[in-house]
TrEMBL record:
Pathway: Amino-acid biosynthesis; L-isoleucine biosynthesis; L-isoleucine from 2-oxobutanoate: step 4/4; Amino-acid biosynthesis; L-leucine biosynthesis; L-leucine from 3-methyl-2-oxobutanoate: step 4/4; Amino-acid biosynthesis; L-valine biosynthesis; L-valine from pyruvate: step 4/4. Belongs to the class-IV pyridoxal-phosphate-dependent aminotransferase family. Its cofactor is pyridoxal 5'-phosphate. InterPro entries: Aminotrans_IV (IPR001544), Aminotrans_IV_CS (IPR018300), Aminotransferase-like (IPR036038), B_amino_transII (IPR005786), BCAT-like_C (IPR043132), BCAT-like_N (IPR043131), BCAT_family (IPR033939). It comes from Billgrantia sulfidoxydans. The keyword Membrane does not apply. Keywords: Amino-acid biosynthesis, Aminotransferase, Branched-chain amino acid biosynthesis, Pyridoxal phosphate, Transferase. Its EC number is 2.6.1.42. It catalyses: L-leucine + 2-oxoglutarate = 4-methyl-2-oxopentanoate + L-glutamate; L-valine + 2-oxoglutarate = 3-methyl-2-oxobutanoate + L-glutamate; L-isoleucine + 2-oxoglutarate = (S)-3-methyl-2-oxopentanoate + L-glutamate. This is Branched-chain-amino-acid aminotransferase. Coiled coil: none annotated. PROSITE patterns: AA_TRANSFER_CLASS_4. Acts on leucine, isoleucine and valine.
Length: 352
C-alpha cells in the first residue's frame, strides 16, 4: 500500500508543471463591511462557489506566481516576494479588488509552507530546477449579477511542485508572432496579472501550436510594430556589443520580477541594460546583421529560456545556433541565487 509520503515522493521526482498540488491551501476572506478576516490554512480541495459568483461571469480575478526553493541545508526560501505583493496590489487596483498588505501576502505563503514544507522538492543537482510553485489568487465571490466591484472576495494560495516549464528544459523555444491577435491595449489590463489577459491569449496560443510553436509573441495594439511580451514571459535581446535590451514598461506589459532581476544581474555581469521600445523590424534586422546575438524569454515559471526562432505568416527569424551562452550564464546566476548557492548580495531571499 503506497503511503501519502510515497505518493508525494513519486510526484516530487517528476512534477512537470501545474499538474499536482500540495495538501493544503491558505485562505483569507474580505467583505466590504469587515475588510480582511478569517485567515486560515485548510485542506486543499474544491471551492464551493455560488453559480452567480461575480468571478464566473465578469472575470473579476487576479493572481500571482512565485516559487519556494529548497537550499542544501533543507531550509526553504522565496525570491523577492514583496515584489509580487506589490504587483498583486497594482493588479487589485486595476480590477477593482481589495488590496492585500505585504504582511498578509507573505504571511499566507509562510502559513501554507508551515504545513506543506515537505512538498518543496530537494534538487538532485545544479541542473535540477525543481521548486514549489505558489499560486496566490483573488476572486470576486459575491452572489450578484449586477456589473460592479464585488462586496465579497476570497484570497487563496495553492502550491504545486514544479520542474521545467517547457518540456525541452532549456532547449530554445519556437515562438509564433501573432499578426492578428493583440494581448493588451493602452488603458486596458495588460500590466495587471489577471485571468482575462491569459484567456484572451489562448486563441493565439492555439494558432501558435498549429505552427509548431510553444509561445506567442505579441506586438502593440496601436501600431502593430513594437514588441511587447510573450503573454506569460518578458523578452530580452542580447546585443553583440553588450547591450541587454528589453521592452520598456508601459501599461500593456506585465512587470516581471524575473525581468527586473535580469536587469540587475545583467548589470552586475557587465552588460548595459536598456529598457526601451524595440520594433519587430529591429529584431529582424538585428539578427540579419549579426548585431543581436541572442533572444531569451524570462518569467517565474520559465526562468530564462532561449528563443530559437520567431515564426510569422510572412517569414521566420532564425536565431543563430551559437549556444545561447549569455542566456545560460544569466540563468545560472539567477538559479544559484535562488537555490542559495551564491551569496544573496541584493537581499532578495525571504525565508518561508
Ligand atoms: C509565471 O511565470 O509565474 C506565470 O504566471 C506565467 C504562467 C505562464 C505560468
Amino acid at each position: 500500500m503506497p503511503t501519502a509520503a510515497n505518493i508525494r515522493d513519486d510526484i516530487l521526482a517528476n512534477p512537470g508543471f501545474g499538474r499536482y498540488f500540495s495538501d493544503h491551501m491558505a485562505h483569507v476572506r474580505w467583505t466590504a463591511e469587515a475588510g480582511w478576516h478569517g485567515h486560515e490554512v485548510r485542506p486543499y480541495g474544491p471551492l464551493t462557489l455560488d453559480p452567480a459568483a461575480a468571478v464566473l461571469h465578469y472575470g473579476q480575478e487576479i493572481f500571482e506566481g512565485i516559487k519556494a526553493y529548497r537550499h542544501a541545508d533543507g531550509s526553504v526560501w522565496s525570491f523577492r516576494p514583496e515584489k509580487n505583493a506589490e504587483r498583486f496590489r497594482r493588479s487589485a487596483r486595476r480590477l477593482a479588488l481589495p488590496e492585500l498588505s505585504d504582511e498578509d501576502f507573505v504571511g499566507s505563503l509562510k502559513a501554507l509552507l508551515a504545513q506543506d514544507h515537505a512538498w518543496v522538492p530537494t534538487p538532485r543537482n545544479e541542473a535540477d530546477e525543481s521548486s514549489l510553485y505558489l499560486r496566490p489568487f483573488m476572486i470576486a465571490s459575491e452572489k450578484f449579477l449586477g456589473v460592479r466591484p464585488a462586496h465579497e472576495v476570497d484570497y487563496y494560495v495553492i502550491a504545486s511542485p514544479a520542474g521545467a516549464y517547457f518540456k525541452g528544459g532549456i532547449a530554445p523555444v519556437s515562438i509564433w508572432l501573432s499578426s492578428h491577435y493583440k494581448r493588451a491595449a493602452p488603458g486596458g489590463t495588460g500590466f495587471a496579472k489577471c485571468g482575462g489577459n491569459y484567456a484572451a491569449s489562448l486563441a493565439a496560443q492555439k494558432e501558435a501550436e498549429k505552427h509548431g510553436c510553444s509561445q506567442v509573441a505579441f506586438l502593440d495594439a496601436a501600431e502593430n510594430k513594437w514588441v511587447e511580451e510573450l503573454g506569460g514571459m518578458n523578452l530580452f535581446f542580447v546585443y553583440k556589443d553588450g547591450r541587454l535590451v528589453t521592452p520598456r514598461l508601459t501599461d500593456t506589459i506585465l512587470e516581471g520580477v524575473t525581468r527586473d532581476s535580469v536587469l540587475t544581474l545583467g548589470r552586475d555581469e557587465g552588460f548595459t541594460p536598456e529598457e526601451r521600445a524595440i520594433s519587430i523590424d529591429e529584431w529582424r534586422d538585428g539578427v540579419a546583421s549579426g548585431d543581436i546575438a541572442e533572444v531569451f524569454a524570462c518569467g517565474t515559471a520559465a526562468v530564462i529560456t532561449p528563443v530559437g526562432q520567431l515564426i510569422s505568416e510572412d517569414d521566420t527569424i532564425q536565431m543563430p545556433d551559437a549556444g545561447n551562452e549569455i542566456a545560460k550564464r544569466l540563468r545560472g546566476k539567477l538559479l544559484d541565487l535562488q537555490y542559495g548557492r551564491a551569496e544573496d548580495t541584493h537581499g532578495w531571499l525571504t525565508r518561508l
